[in-house]
Amino acid sequence: MTLKRPRRHRRQLRSGITFIEVMIAGLLMSVGIMGLVSMWAFSFNMTVRTDDKGVAYCLGRRALEQVKFNTFKTAAEGTYTYYYDGNQAAVSSTAARYRVTVSVVSDQVKSGTAGVAGAQPADAALRTVTVTVQLHTSGEVLYQTATYLVRAGT
Amino acid sequence: MRQSAPVIRARRRGAAIVTTLFVLLIISILLIGVGANVTSHNQRAVMDASHAAAIDVAEAGVNYEFRKISADEASADQQAAPYTGSIGPGSFRVYCTSRDGGAWTPPADLYVYSTGTVNGVSRTVRVAAKGYPPEGDFAIYSMNGTSVFNGSAILIDGDVGTNGYFDFNGHPGVNGDVYFCGPAAGWSGGDPGGYVVQYTPKAVEWETVEEAALRLFPPGTYPPGGLAYLALVNDNLKSGIIGNRITDSVTLIGPGNYYVTEIDLTGSKKITFNNLLGPINLWVGPEGGSGTCRFRGGTAALSLDKGGAPIHIYVATTTGIDLAGNEVLDASINAYNRRADGTEYGYMVNSGNPIINGQVISNTIDINGNITVNYKPGLNSPTSVGYYGYDNSWVEINPR
After folding, report:
1. Distance (Å, rounded) from C-alpha B373 to C-alpha A99?
2. Least CB-CB distance to B89: which of A128, A145, A149?
3. Residue among B20, B60, B67 minimizing CB distance to A146
4. CB count, 10 Å around CB of A65?
5. A1 has pLDDT over 50
6. Which pLDDT tens digit goes with each residue over B29-43?
7. ipTM of this predicted complex?
8. CA A95 to CA A109: how far, in whole Å?
9. Could B53 and A145 be called an inter-chain contact, meaning their C-beta atoms sit closer than 8 Å?
10. Residue B395: CB partners within 8 Å, gap ≥ 6?
11. How far apart are CA A120 and CA A111, in angstroms?
12. B81: which residues sit within 8 A by CB, 6+ positions away?
């Protein structure tokens, strides 16, 4: 024996399923959009970080090459800080996005104190040059490099 | 034929979810692509930065080795036992080889290999290096013992240097720097002050008189070679020198090599150098001899400043050379010697107030009176290396 539901009852059942579908679809869409937003945020932040690293790399290279250009004998002893904006233009610390710290320290000096501005390196000195590029606001290190300077060196 | 309403509703069932999932799928694919792209780009930026830093660290290794072998060649790191150090964000591994790839023997030209590693990225450079002569335009250089500079009217135009000690009495005038070379060098009696003093870790080596003689007259070509050859074969007769002695005024004609065992000039007697046609070497021997060598000037026909040929006075005797009188001497004086057992000797003293246009190199020096020494370049060169550094080639090995 087959029991047949009344036609009106079947219509009500079908209408309920559609509503649940929409609810599920909405839930899926919400979860999906949350994931998409976080993915977008991740991509955006990653792009910003990549941009920061690229700029930091350029600023760091520039700083190191400037020290090498000044040569072993005339590169200034001490620690110096420079500030740059997002366009790599030198700015004041208040407007800076990047902070470049250049440190030149000799292990032997003719005069003055090693690591302090004004000191003159001895001819046989090993001068350690360290360049650190940071995000000015957070202090996060974006790029760091270092080398030695010696008389007649590379 | 039209489908009934229930069939249509049945087909619409699930369409919303399917559509939502499809849209999400498409956007997800796009964003995953973007995410992968930016992540890859970021990794590339990090990698590039590490590559750049690695080459800096590799260069640091090269310069570290330059400094190391400049201070002491014997401490060179050979390929079999490279040195590993760290600096800043990374580490380096460095060693030296000869230009043909074997173990390096100083003071030959060399290659320095250095590998810098930063964040797992390694880069290797090979730099051609060579030794450079010691710095300093030395008007006076003494090798050992204590050299005494008496008198405030001494005037030295050039640098003065020593591997031993300087005792400056009366504050002599030095228009140059005072070099103390090697670990044993320094002031005797304390720093008198007022001088620019340079300290270098390595002693400066100069050619001895016998080495100079052997270089010019090697035994293979001029047996028995060196001073022994000059005692037998020389140009003395060209200037009328008899018995290897100069006791009267004489003109030495260049080019020529003159060998004497005694020079004793008094009063107005002096040696004149005719260097118009070539260089003149005056050798005072024999090696370790004790003959008198009292000079009273020696003017060149044409000074070095005006393109005159060089004049060298080599003194191989233990008694050394005494510069008497107040005449001009246009010559370099070398009174530095070494016996077979390694003992060094040689002496220069002045008992007058001569003006020397040249250079003075001796084992020890006593300066009395108001001597003037004007440094002239190109007369003598140190035989030792002052320091090592870049020569003419910098290449990356196996670049990416």
Report:
1. 54
2. A145
3. B60
4. 12
5. no
6. 888 888 898 999 999
7. 0.83
8. 36
9. yes
10. B125, B126
11. 5
12. B95
